Amino acid sequence: MQAEWGRPDLAVQVKLTLFGQLRTLVDEPAQTLELPDEATVVDLFLKLSERYGERFSSRVMEVRHNRLGLQHHVLVFVNDEKVEAKDQATTRLGSAGGPTEVSVYIMQPFTGG
Q1: Given CB 3.0 to 4.6 Å as the disulfide criterion, which of 21, 24, 41, 108 pairs with 88?
Q2: Three-state secondary-structure class, residue 95
Q3: Looking at the whole model, is its pTM more than 0.90?
Q4: How far is CA 34 from the centre of its chain?
Q5: Is 85 helix (H, G, I), strand (E, B) or coil?
Q6: Are strands 11-20 and 101-108 parallel, antiparallel or unpaired?
Q7: pLDDT tens digits for 75-112?
Q8: What's the chain's Rg over C-alpha atoms?
Q9: CA–CA gap between residue 37 and residue 42 (Å, rounded)
């Protein structure tokens, strides 16, 4: 996967915590992943979809306007700042000269009545 992005030696450690219904879809609701510093929020979800399969990806991913993105009800916070749905494909997890470790919280609220 490292060949897909720029330099493989530039990586960001993602401390990931899943909440809500997503906790039930994975074996580790809190985990640390390493991704290239150029990776976006959507790239993180693609990595998680590879790891956890269709059961996970069908709950969080969708195609909108011919682009792959996250379903509107999935809430994402990077370093305690909410990432708006329109920005998820462009919000990078790492940055040149920025932190090499980020915290990402992902929530899919429970629904029903």
Answers
A1: 41
A2: coil
A3: no
A4: 12
A5: helix
A6: parallel
A7: 999 999 999 988 888 999 987 666 689 999 999 876 65
A8: 14
A9: 13
